[in-house]
Specification:
single chain, Lyase, Ornithine Decarboxylase, Chain A, domain 1, TIM Barrel, 2 domains, 28% helix, globular, binds ligand LLP
Length: 421
């Protein structure tokens, strides 16, 4: 459920007409709903009630500080995957003890930054990383809390580019080697081995892969405890999918997921962490764009809009579907036509949808991409020298620009022409 609904014939973000935001900030832009962000956070928090837990929002999904502060003020922790994300989370007021550091390639500088600033735990992904972390911690006179990310070799049944839990993926250490690697970690003075981490992929619409992975984690917990490790925290990753087709999809709910966690892991008495990104931010954001031209092709009509693949890359990169709806509500039973909906970037991959049914549209009208809150703005670029588009946050009847559109000069003047040229 989200808070982008038609009221009186117009699309609203909570209590603000989307067209009013467009008039104020220009198109294209992203707009997020505070109520939806918080609703999704609380659904997870409630799903794990009865177990000691922390919901660590995977901020890679949407990392604007206003979003982080919204969630952080509600009690969320953060899952970060770079020094930049760590700094951004801290800048938004998230304390170090609520930040977990994931990622396969943490650099020495990033490790030092987090150890200095405070960190809840590092999710270690390889033996060489473990050595580096141990050496840095010892050098700083600190002990780094860690989990080790295990790769359970489970098929997440999602898009190949976002599956992470198979043996062929670069993530974690093979679960078959876990006991040896934990033994090595346990012997390192600079590390405090507190738990196990697992994350098998993103946009999972079936609970079964989670179940297989978590059963393996439960087994491993018992084995490691028998080996003398004090396993007391389980980080279960993110990955729960969202309905991208509003009309005909019903992926499992956070409450179903929470029941699964309790069933598979509840008996172990561990503190549970989860790292959802998409389910918190995805349906909390729209990308809004204006139709520039309606163009007659040989055998089809193109809706050419001012948003492009550099602003929202998911369709080009993952063949992802986003519902695209007019900002003026179509009259009930109104005529439908089919469009290829494309952006102005100079490659055919800049296509958002093919043969998409829409009411007839005209230049100057607005469309909204649903489910664009996660992996939208964060994956945008300035390809074709198109400035990054603004982000707007709505709360009730208020809205604010939370990242403004840079001027062309700001964008262009980041380049330096060498003196010798
Ligand atoms: N934890 C770890 C270690 C992750 O790698 C990810 C996502 C998450 C948590 C959050 O997963 P979520 O709950 O959002 O599914 N750009 C792609 C998605 C990439 C996901 C990467 N890792 C897309 O637009 O679909």
């Amino acid at each position: 459920m989200d808070h982008f609904l038609y009221k009186n014939g117009a699309l609203y973000a909570e209590d603000v007409p989307v067209a009013e935001i467009a008039a104020a900030v220009g198109t294209p832009f992203y707009v997020y709903s505070t109520a939806t962000l918080l609703r999704h956070y609380h659904l997870f928090d409630e799903a794990l009630s009865g177990m000691e837990h922390l919901v660590c929002y995977a901020m890679k999904a949407a990392s604007n500080q206003a979003i982080l502060k919204t969630l952080g003020d509600a009690g969320a922790g953060m899952d970060v995957v770079s020094g930049g994300e760590y700094r951004r989370a801290r800048a938004a007021g998230i304390p170090g003890e609520r930040i977990v550091f994931s990622g396969v390639g943490k650099t020495a500088d990033e490790i030092r930054l987090a150890l200095e600033g405070g960190i809840r735990q590092f999710n270690v992904e390889s033996e060489p990383e473990m050595d580096v972390l141990n050496a840095i911690a010892l050098g700083m006179g600190k002990v780094a809390p860690i989990t080790i990310r295990v790769n359970p070799d489970v098929d997440a049944k999602t898009h190949a580019k976002i599956a992470t839990g198979k043996a062929e993926n670069k993530f974690g250490i093979p679960i078959s080697r876990a006991k040896d690697v934990y033994a090595m970690a346990g012997a390192m003075e600079g590390l405090d081995v507190i738990g196990i981490d697992v994350h098998i992929g993103s946009q999972l619409t079936d609970l079964q892969p989670f179940e297989l992975a978590y059963e393996k984690v439960a087994e491993l917990t018992e084995e490691l405890r028998a080996d003398g490790h004090n396993i007391r925290r389980l980080d279960l990753g993110g990955g729960l999918g969202i309905p991208y087709h509003q009309s005909n999809e019903a992926p499992p709910l956070p409450s179903d997921y929470g029941a699964l966690v309790k069933r598979t892991l509840g008996h172990l008495g561990c503190e549970i962490e989860i790292e959802p990104g998409r389910l918190i931010a995805g349906n909390a954001g729209l990308m809004v764009s204006e139709v520039i031209y309606v163009k007659e092709g040989e055998d089809r009509e193109f809706l050419i809009i001012d948003g492009a693949m550099n602003d929202l890359i998911r369709p080009a990169m993952y063949e992802a579907h986003h519902d695209i709806i007019p900002v003026v509500e179509p009259a009930a039973g109104s005529e439908q036509t089919k469009y290829d909906i494309v952006g102005p970037v100079c490659e055919s991959g800049d296509t958002f949808a093919k043969h998409r049914s829409m009411p007839p549209m005209q230049a100057g009208e607005l469309v909204a991409f649903r489910s664009a809150g996660a992996y939208g703005a964060v994956m945008s670029s300035e390809y074709n020298s198109r400035p990054l588009i603004p982000e707007v946050l709505v709360k009730g009847d208020q809205f604010a620009v939370i990242r403004r559109r840079p001027t062309f000069d700001e964008m262009i003047n980041r380049d330096t022409i060498p003196e010798w040229l």
